[in-house]
Amino acid sequence: MTDTSEATSAQRGGMLDLLNGFVVELRNAGLPVSLTENLDAMEAVQHIELEDRDTFKYALGATLIKNHAHWRSFETVFEVYFSLRGPEYKIGEGGDDTDIDDLWRELQDAQQQGEGKGQGGMDGMTPEEIAQMLMQALMNGDQGMMRAMAKQSVQRFAGMEPGRPVGGTYYLYRTLRNLDLDNMLEKMMEASQQDAPDQLTSLEKRLEKEEFQDQIEKFKGEIESEIRRRLVADRGAEAMAKTLRKPLPEDVEFMHASRDEMSSLKKALGPLTRKLAARLARKRKHKRKGPLDFRSTVRHSLSYGGVPAEPKFKAPRVAKPELIVIADISGSVAAFARFTLMLVYAIQNQFSKVRSFVFIDGIDEVTDYFKATEDIQEAIHRVNTEADVVWVDGHSDYGHAFEVWWNEYGKDVTAKSTVLFLGDARNNYHASQAWVVKEIQAKARHVYWLNPEPRSYWNTGDSIVGEYGAHTDGVYECRNLRQLEAFVDLLA
Amino acid sequence: MTTIPDATAPADAAPRFESVQQVRDALRDVDYLADDGIAGIAYLADRLQKPILVEGPAGTGKTQLAKSIAEITGAKLIRLQCYEGLDESKALYEWNYKKQLLRIQTERGENEDWTDIQDDIFSDEFLLTRPLLEAITSDEPVVLLIDEVDRVEVETEALLLEILSDYQVSIPELGTIVAKQIPLVFLTSNNTRELSEALKRRCLYLHVDYPDLERERQIVLAKTPGITENLADQVSRIVRSIRQLDLKKAPSVSETLDWARTLMLLNIETIDEQTAKETLNILLKYQTDIAKAAKELTVDE
To answer: Which of the two residues, A284 and A88, has the higher pLDDT score?
Structure first.
């Protein structure tokens, strides 16, 4: 860092501190940032104009974040840490002279010229007028206008008070409730239908609808970041960074994932399975050589005058296990079962055969759903809707399910089979029938149990994972994708 | 676009670009529509003299970015296509052993000292340069493109480390060859496996995703001469909609362009459901995806 830095040392010192804090926060959020990357970031910011927020953000992103799945976490931390600080973002006060406010006033003037109501701020408007303006902004996809609307909406509806110990989601809820975005989509569709010269075809309708939905999502994002900005201004970046910290997709717990997190999990699963499959294939290919091939070694020793200078090895025997998955798909663990099944089927060519069974208190084989289609998502959907898994009341009964399974399919377990149980073993105090697992272990090559609950919850309440676990080769905690991936790697 | 020498910078590292805006404008001139991130990171890579690791789905213009940068800087593009089994002799350098053998044979009989011969046959004359070595020994400015780096084995990645961080290659018989000029290096990856930390650490990271609606429309307009605004708009909107489906392989930008060209050739001015359905096989390459998209596009809401 020599030639180009023209900043005064004081400025640089301030920037250095800020960046250091930022990196510490990134690490706290679970993002791996090495020392060299930290130094690179510091050098990078000297080459760009700090006023240009977007470039600044990309400069930091390019030097600090080397995995796209981490980008969202990075963005959150960035917004908190380098949020626009200044008096206009104080809670409770109206902004005075930002561009957005100017734009806002301009728009309002234009809007109200005909109506003769010439006053600033959103306070003077009825909810209908606000809705009307918002609809126009959304339909035109006008970013500046949407940002201005978001700002005004938060100011008017969120009811934020300095120092109030309430989370951002509360304010978000209040703002959204007042804006009534749910009906907005329909209204927008109607309006576009009227504006169109001809009747819209269903294709056009579909496209319009998706675009409007997208705009609404964007608007929600604007509101969220507006609330975040105000909270940061109120409480300081360090305090907010902690509360806003979002887990990385691979650290999201299956059992407590929100809908947003679920979809990001699903997205993360695709690349993950691809990588896993590539890694396993490579592992298989480059595995250690087989045992010494004595005959071949002796034969080749002839060319060295009878000295076995070049040892020859047998080709390794590739033993692909046959996999039997038995999964609990009752409410609380359904998401976990779904992800595990998806992962297993995505790498099914690593096994000679995969059979899968799902149960709640009854049990059903779902192997055919996966055979019938190439689309794993569709198969999973069929598992959720079509599988016959309820016997009495639809509460988990491991004991009954296992007993039925043993009577019907127990004979299919061979010395080549690896049996995988998925579930939290919360048996609602029914009989455990753990002898089934014991019988399976006696016949199968391996028996594993994956539990999506934190280890500290095991064997509390009606969880009897210990009782089953005693007859397996291992019970593994599988709360997130990272743990699941590690296990599958071990399995195949 | 030529390089503009900067008085304050060291002579060996005259920056290629003046500002982020300049990069973006220049790229636009060669029909590559960069977004904020792409232009900014290309600019930074030049200033920091660091390689760029470009990741993203196939067909989003990762390779094209390197080509376009080469075009606007007037640099020579040297490309190393990676594949499984790539080794030193294909990536870095190789001794021209046939020529070495000839050299030894021609001298046979005359009483030449072996050490002389040895010095002679391990000299520049007998060295075959491969892309990486070529990139740093070249006198003219170079853009080095290491394509699909995720295809080589983890062990082979190590070959790249020296050149990426220090812009030099060590050859045991010759010593270390240091770059005459610092090339601008692009590594692309389709993300089929996790690259090693060591490699990532040395690079700036750029994720190129599918472009947003507006940018894709611009791309279609720029790359498909003669297309109407209306058709370009429709094409990009439908593609965007299809990308939101849960598909095996979402349509890439290059497939979007293929589709736009096809529609042009078919003299289609507005896309209705029927034409969309009939030409889907240009956008999508899996039968299940085509079936799914066709179903989705025709279902009435």
So the answer is: A284
